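Researcher: Next entry in the queue.
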Amino acid sequence: MNDTIAAISTALGVGAISIIRVSGDESISIVSKIWKGKDLTSVPSHTIHYGYIYDKEELIDEVLLSIMKAPKTFTKEDIIEINSHGGIATTNRILELLLTNGCRLAEPGEFTKRAFLNGRIDLIEAEGVMDLISAKTEKSRSLALHQMTGEVSNMISALRDKLVDVISNIEVNIDYPEYEDIEIVTIEKIKESVSYIEKEIEHILKKSETGSIIKEGIQTVIVGSPNVGKSSILNRLLEEEKAIVTDIAGTTRDIVEGDIAIDGIILHMIDTAGIRDTDDVVEKIGVQKSLEWIDKADLVLFVLNHNEELTKEEQEIMKHIEEKPSIIIVNKNDLSKKLELPPTNSSVIFMSALENRGIEELREEIKRLFHLEEIEQNDYNYLSSARSISLLKQCLESLSSIRDSLSENMPIDMIEIDLKNVWNNLGEIIGETYTDELIDEMFSRFCLGK
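Model: Structure for this entry, 450 residues:
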C-alpha cells in the first residue's frame, strides 16, 4: 500500500483512446518524469491538462492528463490518468515508461482493493463495481449500481446497529448491576430483538434469491433422447443456428452453449448429447456429461417426442428431475400422438420446433416459474454474491440457536457471545471484519486496471 501502482484501464487494441491509471503517493513525481506540459505539482486537483509523453528526448504521444489529489479520489490516494491515443504499441510504451520510472504493475482489482482498504468503499460496494463491469442486462446493471451506492450496505449496517444496542445493554447489566437508571434487559426484550433481526434477514435472503438470478442468470440445460429436437429448440430460442441439426440420432456429442435474455434475465442455455444406452465411446462421454449437467442446472428443459412412447431412460430422467425446477417439452406435436405422459410435478409445454410453434409459450412458462415478472424495476436492494448470502444464512442459524438458548434459560453471557458472532458475520458481509485471504481472493477476480 506504500508503493505507487500503474495499469492500463481500457481494453488493449485499436481504438481512439487508451487510459493508463496511476495511484499512490509518488504518482505526481513519477508521471512528471515523462510528462511535458504544466507543472503537475502546482496544478489544481481534479483538472485535465494537455501535453506530451516523452522517453528522454523521444516523443511518445500527445495526451490529455487528469490529475486528482488525495483524499478526494477513488483510492483516497493521488491518482493520475493518462488519456493516450489508442493502440497496443503506444499504450504499452507509456505503461513501460511508468514502470521504469518507479511504478509497480497493479494486480487485478488493486485500485478497487485500495479503495476498500482506505475506507472509500465497503465490500458490497466493491462487489458492485465488479458486477457493473460485467453486467449484460439492464437489470444486472441496476442491481450493481444499487450495491455501489451503498443502499444495500445500509440494510446490513442497520441490523448491526440493532445488535449493538442489545449487546451493549446486556454488558451494562452484567458489569454494572448496581445502577438503578439503566434499562433492565429481560429475556423477552432480547427475544423481541432477535425475532426482528431474524425476520429482516429472512426478508433480505428472499429478495437476494432474485438478486442472484439477476446477477448470475439461470443455468438452463436441455436434455432428452437423441433426435428428439433439442438442438432445434436451442436454435429457436437463440434465434440462430448454434447447434447442428440433422435427422441422424446422436449428432450432438458434446455440450453446445448459448445465452438468451428473458425480461432482462440471462438464461445460459446448454444443449446436451442425447441420453440413451450407446456403445460409441465419444457419445457415451457426452451422455455422462448430460446427466451431470442435470444435477448442476437451475432449470431443466426435458424434451420428449409427441410421436414416440416413453423409453426406460426417459422415465428415469422424469424421476430424476422431479425435485428440480423443470419444464417438459413435448416436441413434434405436428405428428400423430403416441406419447402418454405419467403424472408429473413439472410444467408441460406442447410445441413444434419445426414449425416454430410453442416457443413463446415456453418463454412465458420460464418467466412464470422464476417469477421474473415480479422483479420490480425500482427495488434492487438485494445481496447477489454467494459469499454474502452464505454469511446471512449463517446468521439465521445462529439466531435460531439463540432463540433455543433463550427458551432453555441459558446464561445471558453465553447468549451474548452468540449475538456477537452474528454481529461479526454481518460485519464480514460489508467488510467491517475480514481476513487478508478473503480480500486477496475477492479482488483477484477483477480485471487489471480496475
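Model: Residues 187-216 form the longest helix (30 residues).
Researcher: Noted, moving on.
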